Amino acid sequence: MKGNLTRGLGIAGGLLALAISLPAQSFSTIDVKGVTVTYWHTGTGPTEKGLQSLVDEFNKSNPYGITVKEEYAGNYNDIYNKTLTGIAAHQVPDLVVAYQNQAAAYRLPKGIVDINPYVNDSQVGLSPASIKDFIPGIYESDINPQFHNERLGFPHQRSMEVLYYNLTWLKKLGAAEPPKTWDEFAALCRKATNVQKGTYGYAIDTDASRVFSQTISRGGGFLSADRQDFDLDNPAIVDSMRLMKQLLDEGAARKVAEAYGDQADFGNQKVLFTIGSSSGLGYYQQAVEHGANGKFRWSLAPLPHSTENPVQDLYGASVSITKTTPQRQLASWLFLKWFTQAAQQKRWVEISGYFPTRRSVRDSLGPYLVRNPVYAKALDILLSSDVVTEPPFSSYQAVRAEITKTYNAILDGADIKSALAKLTRKANQINADARDN
Amino acid sequence: MKVRLAVLFAALGILAFLALLPLLYMVSTALKTFGETITRISPNPLSLEFWPRIPQWVNFAAAWSYGEGLAHSFFVSVVVASVTVLGVLATTIPAAYAFAKIPFRGREFFFGVFLTTLMVPETVSTLANFMTITRLGWINSLQGLTVPFFASSFFIFFLRQYFRQIPETILEAAQIDGATTFQVTLRIAVPAARAPIFTVAFLAFTGSWNSLMWPLMATNTLDWRPLAVGLTKFVTEAGPQAHLSMAASTMALAPIVLIYIIAQKQITDSVTRSGIVG
Amino acid sequence: MSRLSRPLAEARQRRANREGFLFLLPAGLIILIFGLWPLVFTVGMSLFRWRVVPGRFVGVSHYLRLFGDPQSLLWIAGAFIAGVLSWVVVLPRGRRVFRLILVLAAVFCVVMGWAIASNTGDEDFWASVRVTVWYALGTVPAQLAAGLSVALLLGRLRKARQSFRVVFLLPYIVPAFSAAAIFARLFSLRPESFANQILAALGQAPQQWLGEAKGLFTLLFSWGTGSATSDLASFGQAWAAGPSLALVSVMIFNLWVFTGYYALIFAHGLAQIPRDLMDAASVDGAGPWSRFRYVTLPLLTPTTAFLSLLGLIGTFQSFAHIYVLRTAAAQGTSDPVSVVIFNTFFQRQDFGAAAAQAVVLLGIVLTLTVLQRRFQDRRVHDES
Questions:
Q1: What's the structural domain count of chain A?
Q2: Is the CB of B124 less than 8 angstroms away from the CB of C42?
Q3: Same domain, residue pair A213 and A292
């Protein structure tokens, strides 16, 4: 008798334990019919219109009965400020564009959710083949080690740091191709400099992404060995800063004078090289078309590098799902899943000019690539280079500002080693502080 | 005498020129083509390069239609600013009169409290107010954009100054005649301080028209997006196309200037009079 | 007679209280909810770790981090004591010297406390307090003087006054960031920019203006350079360098924006001056300068007092018209406290620390306001 009872209890206990360890819900039991979700984005002008038509199509054609409302909510900084405020006041949209470090800042107060459960779900998730289609560097970038490798965003677009160069001028200076090493780069900058004509080699932009892209091109990075802290005074950064300071002192490089000043100078054939995001392509096109001394041949290239292969800084906002109700979260995921499918990606590229996040999209872009040869070249660079992404810590927003400050201080003459040591200390202090609440 | 007038005009002329110079720059950029904005640049309005070769009036039309929703935002701003002015006057006039003329207990204390609220930095008050508005359900609404600005200690103290100047004798006379304090305020104090009140109305209108941080937080949709927010959106959209962003900025400016010129008549007429009757 | 009038006086007082309350109610309600509550909320927030959502209670931890070495707090406390004493102490035979000594002691304590806090506490915050002080010194007197001058000049006109007034108000009406976009061009580091062209006309080398982090005095006289070891020395050096050229450019911008605004308010003050007084003075043979000095200026003091008080508060709080001109190259030398609070809030998502900074700023402004009113009480020509 007792033996049976014990066995019975044991089996019941085992079943109970099994039930508890199973996932709390299956997504297929959640009803999303009639749910409306809002999506905050930065699209303006034609991009916004294109997005609206995509969203309209989803609203009409999706089998779940979900309605999506897209809202322009400002530029990335505005959206970041608004979302933080919104999380504080418990008033958030359902989907929001966010850079990886911004997503981390949302995740700390539990404002957004982990997307992995959705991706990996057998019913509503992605098939292994679909997951494989994502460009590896991009797909991994939304995994955040600060939060146990949760997936804090899903990628719908990316762009990349590139070197813009004036080909016509380059040829005049005796070079057939854009520089592959930093020494070649420096030499060409010097050759391009002419005080009388007011020309120079490189327009220095002190944004932290410029520092990152130069650092990784020398085989370095921003993180310490254990990837938990910042290491901002390693040799790669020191060398990058030293070269820039040197070029500035020689007059071969100048600081950017005003917003879009580097593009204007490029278009007016005053500067030979600029480094910036591939998403600025359209503006460069415009600047060249209307520039002072007529049109010229120009293109973009990977940054010069001391590594074997070019190493490119890849960045871009993904879309995060905020913590609301299970229904709205699932509805948000279903839209996101559709939005990042290859067919929609192709259209998104044509609307926005960003890079797609799926490999297969390149093949379907034929006519677009023909119309936009410079974009095609950039896409090829993306697919053939080693790509690295910037640190996804929630403290990175503040650290970026410190990096820019230090870069400017160095250009003004501060001692490089001590300035970078001080920067590292401060960055790690901010990072340690941002770890918990 | 003529010489003195000439010197006066010269001095004012130079100052006015300095005040106008950046705005001339804005208008001249608005009338250039994109190419000219990056090639034909000069800081000197006396040089030809400052001005466009051919004024591109079409830029204004382009900015108007390129920026989707600018027209709508324009009307939103008119409504929001007007309602704000009404609310400001409704709260400020009685409060200023009370501080100036009613010897109620605790007057100094409340004065200090009101003054202290001016010292709270914008950023932190924005968060607290945003949370309040959210709780009230006033996001994306007219109330959310106007009510928080209905009372400003600055305007209250400014008007208090002018109410204080009204001679007690007049007020007492009216009270003896049986008027309530409210009637005294309305019939005597307000007309006497017509000029400062119009100034308060104008400043409140301008403040509302140009405010950016709050509407950015408090609205998400086009429905109640005021012009300031729409303008920043447009400027982001336009990117390096300075001719379009300057055209839009000029257009955002025009209505207030018009309103001011209209209200100006009222203000100046009162100001040239020697102040208080009697 | 007095026994009869007391109940009447009380009734009158009660009526005044009731009316005062009612008249104050609409404004008071709004200010309570949207002005006072944020203040209370901010103080509360400063006592917690608050990364977007409330965390654990930490009491004055944020404040301690702000001040760094506790010694700085001791000095500040000392300053308060000395300051309060200098106010309150009733001196035998009214010896002025003692009061002066106490005031100087208070100032000394502030300097010591501030110097220590600058080096051991939140560097950026205390640097921004210095920026704010420079900004206030550079703008309030200048804007008052410019506004008054324009108002006086306009007052003498009859016909063209309207048009001129509109012209002077235009800078205030232009949205801040549109005006900033223009100023950024006018004051850019390009040799062809407006500011540099003026320098060229004066035979000077082009400057980086909004991108120049070096102090004005460093550029002009080479002050504030060299290495400093002690807290006090590096503090003194930072001050000796003066406001950065970027900050000076921002001051010029704000002067341009607000002169017309101040002129408008001064115009009202000027209109209060009875014409007959002015006429009497002229008849007595007073020239324009004497009339200004002995009639206009004294009668204008209520307006001047009002404007300098609110100008001071407004300047310490000023955000929009400074933030729009920030450049990376300025390295924070044009960031007043309001901008640092904004960055602590959004860039660092450290709401608790930002709240503490806001409370400290509030304390500083409150102290200055009290000091200013005290100063004015001794000099203001009261309207009778």
A1: 2
A2: yes
A3: yes
Q: What chain B residue is nearest to C41 in terms of C-alpha separation? A: B128
* pLDDT tens-digit readout, C80-93: 999 888 877 766 66
pLDDT at A163: 97
Output the domain CATH number for residue A88: 3.40.190.10
Provide the residue range defining the domain that includes A195. 159-314+395-433
* Mean pLDDT computed over every residue of chain C: 88
Report the relative pairing of strands A298-301 and A159-166 from DSSP bridges: antiparallel
Minimal CA separation from B222 to chain C, in Å: 20
* Interchain proximity B154–C310, CB inside 8 Å: yes
- Alpha-carbon distance B178 to A2, whole Å? 99
Tell me if C178 and B252 make a contact (CB, 8 A cut-off). Answer: yes
Statement to judge: residues A327 and A272 lie in one domain: no
Q: What is the pLDDT of residues A320-361, one digit of tens each?
A: 999 999 999 999 999 999 999 999 999 999 999 999 999 999
Q: Please indicate, yes or no, whether residues A228 and A343 belong to a single structural domain of this protein.
A: no
Q: Is residue A259, in this structure, part of any structural domain at all?
A: yes
What is the model's pLDDT at position C3? 64
Size of interface A-C (CB pairs under 8 A): 79
Instruction: Note whether A188 and A73 are same-domain residues.
Output: no
All partners of chain B with 3 or more CB pairs under 8 angstroms: A, C
For residues A223 and A322, membership in a common domain is answered with: no
Residues A208 and A334 in one domain: no
User: Residue A277, SS3?
Assistant: strand
Asked whether residue C362 carries a pLDDT value surpassing 50, the answer given is yes
Q: Is residue A179 part of a domain?
A: yes
Least confident of A154-158, A297-301, A342-346, C193-197: C193-197
Residue A40: strand pairing partners = A71, A96
Could you tell me the domains of chain B?
2-56 (no CATH), 68-272 (1.10.3720.10)
Q: What is the rounded CA–CA span in Å between residue C199 and residue C193? A: 10
Select the highest-mean-pLDDT range: A15-24, A104-113, B71-80, C14-23.
Answer: A104-113
CATH 3.90.550.10 fits C123-377, yes or no: no
Has residue C268 got a pLDDT over 90?
no
β-bridge pairing A67-72 and A36-41? parallel
Distance between CA atoms of residues A93 and C355, nearest Å: 26
* A287 lies in some domain: yes
Q: By CA distance, what is A84's nearest residue in C? A: C52
Neighbours of A3 (CB within 10 A): 7
Same-domain pairing of A257 and A243: yes
Check whether residue A252 and residue A167 sit in a common domain. yes
Contact A98, A320 (CB under 8 A): yes
**A418 lies in some domain:** yes
Probe site for chain B from C18, C22, C31 (most B CB atoms < 10 A): C31
Map tokens 């080096």 to a residue: C119
pLDDT tens across A149-161, in order? 999 999 999 999 9
Closest residue in C to A86 (Cα) is C52
What CA–CA distance (Å, rounded) separates B12 from C152?
10
Q: What is the pLDDT of residues C339-356, one digit of tens each?
A: 999 999 999 999 999 999
| Whole-angstrom distance, CA of residue A374 vs CA of residue B137 | 49
